[in-house]
Amino acid sequence: MHKLYYALADKRFLAQENLLGLLELAQSRGVHPDKLLKGSSLFSGDIEDASTMLSAQQLLTIYKNAKRSFGADDSSFLLGQYLLPGNHPQFASAILASPTLLDLIELLQEFGFLSQPLIEFKSVYDDQNLYLQLLPVDIDDYANDFLMESISSAFFSFSRWLGVDTSSWSCLHAFKEPKYQEQFLVHYGLRPKFASHINAIIIPRASLSEQLPRGSRARFDLACKLCKQNLAEKSSRSLSLWVYQSLQDELSQAPGLEELAERLELSPASFKRHLKAEGCSYQAILDSVRRHMAIYYLHTGQLSTEEIAQKLNYHDKHNFKRSFRRWTGINPSVYLAST
Fold this sequence. Notes:
Helix content is 54%, strand content 9%. It is built from 17 helices and six strands.
């Protein structure tokens, strides 16, 4: 049976492939590699071996070290210049040949794991916009600000390099507003909406199908085929992401902890233990799914509070409002007025 998920502690990513940009930036900033690798059980000598593998857990630790080690306000944004097209050969070939912005986004959704294993790209549409959500493997929207800035900066700058006009885009960040707002204007070309309790880029649907000047359908299709072969028999989701997707797919009648454990052929106790090892819990992931979908529904403006509560499997709008205040500190109407 093809395994449905991987554990954050599993060593399954090539260290050189995933750390090259960070190490090059560290060198330019005079930061010793071992400072970046502190607490990851890796040392600079390990990275010299092309076969060295690392886990998502180690990679998350290294990104958090980078935030402390680099210091400069522009570090996360400059790192973004190294992240796309990335160092995975088949994925890089595909993304460089993207015929349209929609092809690029669908590529990131299906194969982005090959190049950016710490982020899952998820999209939701309304009549006017595509909401491209950036969801970290540990489902923590708030503690991965350096990573989010890097990935978002990479997506904005690479899209522009492909010939996309990003001037009509907007951006939501879960974390609080930092002091270095000018960096967002320089590297994103806009000022994000902070403390939004979700990380997402909002793109008008009208721009998705425009042909990109650097694109090639034949090269893109061939490279995607090679990506698919590369992913054969591999799980592209952490356990937390697998639970998130399972709950999102069936949110109106969300499966309980015991049912998900049975699907994974685990006992409920083992399931809880595996989630705890990733710093998560069933309830925390369910709250994240509900929070993200509530924010999406509020942004679209197409549903009443009662209808949103029903879609999120709440008994009534009052229970939903209480939960929303617990997640965000404010009522849904206040959140909507601030967007």
